[in-house]
Each structure stands twice: as C-alpha cells, then as structure tokens.
Model the fold of this input.
Amino acid sequence: MPSPREAEPELQAAIDDVAATVSKTMEHLLPQTDDAEGYLYDAMRFSSLGGGKRLRPFLVMQSAKLFNVDPTRAKRAAAALEFIHCYSLVHDDLPAMDDADTRRGKPSTHRKFDEATAILAGDALQALGFEILSDNQTHEDPRVRCQLISAMAKAAGGHGMCGGQMLDLIGETEEFDMGTISRLQRLKTGMLMAFACEAGGILGKADEAHRKALRGYAHDLGLAFQVTDDILDVEGDENDTGKPANQDEAAGKATFVSTLGKDQARMRAEMLVAQACRHLHVFGDRANMLKKFAHYVLERRA
Amino acid sequence: MPSPREAEPELQAAIDDVAATVSKTMEHLLPQTDDAEGYLYDAMRFSSLGGGKRLRPFLVMQSAKLFNVDPTRAKRAAAALEFIHCYSLVHDDLPAMDDADTRRGKPSTHRKFDEATAILAGDALQALGFEILSDNQTHEDPRVRCQLISAMAKAAGGHGMCGGQMLDLIGETEEFDMGTISRLQRLKTGMLMAFACEAGGILGKADEAHRKALRGYAHDLGLAFQVTDDILDVEGDENDTGKPANQDEAAGKATFVSTLGKDQARMRAEMLVAQACRHLHVFGDRANMLKKFAHYVLERRA
Done:
C-alpha cells in the first residue's frame, strides 16, 4: 500500500507524464547555442531544465484537457509559464533575496554560475516566456495569444508574483495581520497558479462561467499550496524538499504556521482543498484529476 | 549660436516633446498604489519616471509617424519599450553587475531602496512592458500586438539585450576581437534600438522593404550610439553624463575605444551615421528628423 503522503498511482502517473512531456518541450524551446552568449544559455538551461515537479504545467495541461485543447499548444503555454516560474526561483535564491545555496538538491544558479549571470538568466527566461506565448504555434488566434500574455504578465508582475515577493521581504521585519499574509501568498504563489488553471480556459475559448470556476479552484488551491509549503518548511525532510528546514522561521518570515499554529494551519489547508474541489462541480467527472491534485497538494511531502 | 554638440533647435524640440508626452503616458501606465505592495511601485516609479532622455521612445514615435500611426497607440508602444530599457538599467546598476551608485545624477535604485527591491522592481517593469503591448489600446489588431511582443521579447532576451549584457561581463576578464565586440554591442544596445525603429513599421503594418530600411537604419544607428557611448565614457563630463568617467576602463571592459583608439572610433561612428541615413532614402524628406537624430547621436555629450 502506498504511503498516504504519496500521490495515488493514477495521479502520480499523470503528473510524471506531464513533467516528462513539458520538460521536453522546454528543452526544445531553449536549445543550447554556439553563439558568444552561450554561457548565459548554459545558466538558463541549468535553471529551468534539470528537474522540478512541473506542477504548474500539470494544471495547464489538465485545464486545457477540459476544453479539448490540442496538447501541442497547451504544452507551449505550460512551458512558457514554467520558464516564468523558474526565473522567479533563480531571482528568489539570490543573496539579496532568500540567499539560498541549493535548489531542488542542486546548487542554486548564482552558486553554480555567479550572481550577475543568475540575474541575467532570470531576466532572459522571463522574456522567453512571453516570446513563446506570442508565437502562432501556441495558438492560431492572435486574440487568444494576447489574452494569455496579458494574464501571465499580470500574474507575474507588480500586483502579482513580484508584489508577493516584495511583501515576503517586508514581512521579515514587519508584523503582518492575516489579511496581509493572505494577500502576500495570493500574489506570490496564487496568481501564477490561477493563471495555470485559467490558461486552459483561455486556450479553449471557454465561457466566463467555466473560467470563473477555474479561477475559484485555483485561488483556493493556491492558498492551500502555500499553507502546506509553510508546514513543510517546519516539518519537511531536506531530502524530500531539497531545501533546509525552518528557513522561514530563521528569516523571521510571517507564515500561516507562525500566525495560526501548525494544527490550525493544517485545518485551514484541508478546508481550502474541499472548497477548491467544489468549484469544479460544473465540469463533472472530467475534472477528477484536478480534484485528486488538490488532495495531493495537501498530502505532498515536497 | 548653439554649441555644435547640442541638437539643433527643431530636433531638440521634437526630442523634448516626445520625452514629455511619453513620460506622461508612462506615469499613467504605472500609477501609485495604496496596496500593500506599494513599496515595490515606489521603486518601479523611481526607476522609470524621473527623467531620462527617452531616446528609444523618440525612435518609436518618429518611425510610427512615417506610417501615419495614431500617436496614442505609438505612445503606448514607446512606453512599453522604455519600461524595458529602465528595467535593464536597474539590473545593470546592481552590485553584482556594474555596481553603480548613481544613475542620471540620482542614486541608483538599489542605493535609494535596497538590492532585493531593485531586483524585483526590474522584474516587474519587464512584465509591465509586455502587459502594455498585449492590451488592445496599443493596437486593435491582435496580430500587430503579438508581432510587437515577439519582436520586443527577442530584442530583450538571451539573444538580445540580456545576451549583450552577459558578453559585457565576460569582456571584463576576456579579450574580445572586433567581431565579438560588435556582437556584444549589437545585442546589448542595438537590438532594442532596432525594435524601437521597427515598432513604427509594425504598428503601421509596413511592407517588408520599409521594415528592412528601418532595421538597416537602426542597426547602424545602434552601433554609432554605442561607439559614442564608449567615447563619452573616456571624454564625457560627469555633470553631463550623470555617471563617473572611465568606468569602462576601470572595469577592464573591452570597448570600441580601447580596441580602435579614440580617433578611429570617432571615424567609425561618423561612417556608421552616414550609412544609417542612406537606409532612409526610401522615405524621402519625411525621414528628416530620423536623419537629424543620427547626427545628433554623433554629437551628443550625454
């Protein structure tokens, strides 16, 4: 019998399958180069191609499936989003930010290369994400491409991921109330997760009701994801998570765990997952994998 | 009589006019916010709204004029590009990169705020640039918007500005030949200048011959711009350029001046400007301002 903290076999197979195919697409979209700037591409490839759970791509592929989107298109959107996610990890790890020496059990990009190269690799990965979405291979309708770009830019920008990261840094020295912690997490993680889920709807030209359902799912899932992240920070095994335990506490960061306590945080996560799944009722059985995924987020150990 | 190194009055008035109107558009596109992440927006606004010559916006506006593009649209494309340019300055100034304490006579962003905030402000400014281009206020035809996004992403990315910046850093410790120095400059400055010139053609749905002429102009102008930048680094007055003299030499950077000598470099710049202007013959008198601008690049002192 599998450990209760492992994804059930069908879900795990689906996650592994997406990770493999989207990683291949990313490899194809970020080829090695003989140009003089090849060193930068080494750093970009190191930062984005060597593993990673590819959970955001999984959400793109699954949400796209709900609307019968051509998988070759969905894979490109998933890759674009994952490049954005990878750029954010490279910059988050920088000495001036989280100052992390390792990432996914490997050296962080600025440790493997150097700080300047890591900054530039992150910058170039962000540009690459938008370049991929603008290409007509991602969708033949330029209106759809612009919608994807607009949504990803907002999710990644100042009122999205970057804003959340800013709040995270401010939270090291300031006491936040629950409202601000929730906003921090929604911006830092939630917006990009929401984009992952909505991307399928955009690619499939879904109507507003279906998009709203996906956004609702993503919103609750994103918060649940962050709460379990906070729990993993205090409970997780470095061998599983690939990063040292108690980093948040050491950095004095306000988290759900530090504010609510571990048990309350776990209850909050469970409630959020139940709520996330209720949003998916409109899709019936076809959303089973997304529902399973929400439960997996709760039980994951890395 | 004006000094021969000042732009002639008609050109100067046109440059000032663009700087004022595009700055206003940028101000409008990057409003102050009461949200918790307001500190990040302070840094973004500090990095992009306080002055700057707005030379790239000038090229966008002038090239757009050749095809009778609605100026309210051109202004948005110009603003998007300038946000990208500003993000690159913020990251270039970081301690791990050029380690510059001042920019345009003011403290650099990481000196005014802190390093982490400067990294995030740059990241968010890049996302903002793409968000602006994806909006239908920039052009009603989504195909045009996607072309702008694709061209800007390529110009800013790993085989564009970021790649050039990478070469610039490598050049501090490695000896480059003229071919590699030319590539460095083309990527670092030329590609974004080329996008500035081509943006007008894209917005105006110009045919390939006209776009090619603009690219040719931009290519030579970009190189001339970089050569004069190198000359200004050794000759310029800190009061004009807003940065200390001989920064490149101190950093051991390979430049046109260090490789060719100052006189040869100036001759090269003059030749490039003449060549740039020849590309514009296809536009007749309507391109006079762009021709004047090329000569101004040669004579500028900041």
User: Anything to note?
Assistant: Chain B has 15 helices and two strands. The longest helix of chain B spans residues 208-235. The domain at 9-299 of chain B is CATH 1.10.600.10 (Farnesyl Diphosphate Synthase).
